[in-house]
Design a protein that fits this description.
Elements (H helix, E strand, L loop, with lengths): L9 E5 H18 L2 E2 L9 H9 L5 E3 L2 H9 L4 E7 L4 H8 L6 E6 L2 H11 L5 E5 L14 H10 L3 E6 L11 H21 L6 E4 L15 E2 L9 H6 L9 E11 L2 E4 L3 H4 L11 E3 L2 E9 L4 E4 L9 E6 L2 H5 L4 E6 L2 E7 L8
Parallel strand pairs: 1-16, 2-9, 3-4, 4-5, 5-6, 6-7, 7-8, 8-9
Antiparallel strand pairs: 1-10, 10-11, 10-15, 11-14, 12-13, 12-15, 13-14, 16-17
Length: 353
């Protein structure tokens, strides 16, 4: 089938662009001398993780134990759960079940969480990375407090492998370079403090898609970008990807046309609802770069701009935040040269715990 023949809305991945993105970032990481551990919560698709690993990724990053379970089941052997997991007996049992097939590391960001993890996982072989706050002000301890958490983890019988951070404040206009610098300072401080306290620091992990190009060599030993495989309207608007690097779009049909706007058959239930304060719309049209989605409801999107498509035409919508879009569908259509060549199941969809 060709794209105009598809039922809409449909989530479509251009295989050629995807493969170029995977290769480009793998090469960038090698040139910068850092290991690449992509965050697979963006795509949740084992076939894409396989492409990333084949291109040189040292392992994968996940957000939840559920995601880890899916990707280990599909052959991943080195997994970092980049999240301050609060363990229960059930969660610990699930993690232990993975250890005969994969190396697994988890995040902690308090002495209490480290002690709690040790109650269930002491001696199991799970590695711990202490999360530090490099300016995003979400989870993570200040870099100067990293030793206190690491010592609690060591005292609880866990092996501390290093530290990690997420420079999430890079997601904004002109924010990538400062965020990358903050990341370097936080990881360097954390690494020095841990070594001075007698810890062997194997990993200082950072990185995000917007800050990746600005990552400084003497900070992180590995980077964890995710969105780069697909691109999205946020990255396009911020200048961190070009239109020809956007691999995932939502195919939609113009179902209503007016002199000042058109309406698409794709709303928040397939596009997601994320819109940053600085974003110029709820999404963009790949082939009409001056157009913007100015409003969305559950099954409608309002588009304004110049040179708008006509009634019945299909368009390729670039969603604002691609990670949420993938989690809304059971499968994506894989196209090459405008023809559908396969379907990939979003195998880790809904694995949020």
């Amino acid at each position: 089938m060709s794209l105009p023949e598809l039922e809409t809305p449909a989530v479509v991945v251009d295989a050629d662009i995807l493969e170029r993105n995977v290769t480009r970032v793998a090469l960038l990481a090698r040139e910068r001398g850092v290991a690449l551990r992509p965050h697979v919560k963006t795509h949740k698709i084992p076939e894409i993780a396989a492409l990333q690993l084949a291109a040189g990724a040292v392992g994968i990053t996940v957000a939840t134990i559920g995601e880890a379970e899916v990707f280990v089941e599909h052959g991943a052997t080195d997994v970092f759960v980049a999240y301050p997991v609060w363990f229960t007996a059930a969660r610990a049992d699930r993690l232990r079940a993975l250890l005969d097939r994969a190396r697994v590391a988890v995040g902690v960001d308090s002495a209490e969480a480290a002690a709690n993890a040790g109650r269930f996982l002491s001696g199991a072989g799970v590695e711990v990375l202490v999360e530090v706050d490099s300016g995003h002000h979400r989870s993570g301890v200040l870099p100067g407090d990293v030793v206190r958490v690491a010592e609690a983890a060591r005292g609880a019988g866990l092996r501390v492998a290093g530290a990690f951070t997420f420079p999430g404040h890079a997601y904004g206009p002109d924010a990538a370079a400062p965020a990358a610098h903050h990341e370097r300072e936080a990881l360097a401080t954390a690494g020095t403090a841990l070594r001075s306290a007698g810890f062997q620091v194997a990993v200082l992990s950072g990185g995000s898609t917007p800050s990746l190009a600005a990552t400084e060599d003497d900070g992180a030993t590995e980077v964890r970008p995710g969105v780069y495989v697909f691109g999205d309207a946020q990255q396009w608007e911020l200048g961190h990807c070009a239109a020809d690097e956007i691999a995932l779009t939502v195919l939609a049909t113009v179902v209503s046309a007016h002199p000042d706007r058109v309406i698409l058959d794709a709303g928040s239930k397939v596009l997601g609802a994320d819109r940053a304060a600085w974003a110029t719309g709820h999404g963009r049209l790949l082939d009409h770069p001056d157009a913007r989605l100015t409003a969305i409801s559950e099954h409608h999107a309002t588009v304004v701009g110049t040179g708008l498509p006509g009634l019945g035409e299909t368009v390729r919508v670039v969603p604002n935040h691609v990670c949420t879009v993938v989690n809304l569908v059971d499968e994506v259509l894989v196209v090459r040269d405008g023809k559908v060549e396969g379907r990939w199941s979003v195998a880790a969809r809904g694995r949020n715990s």
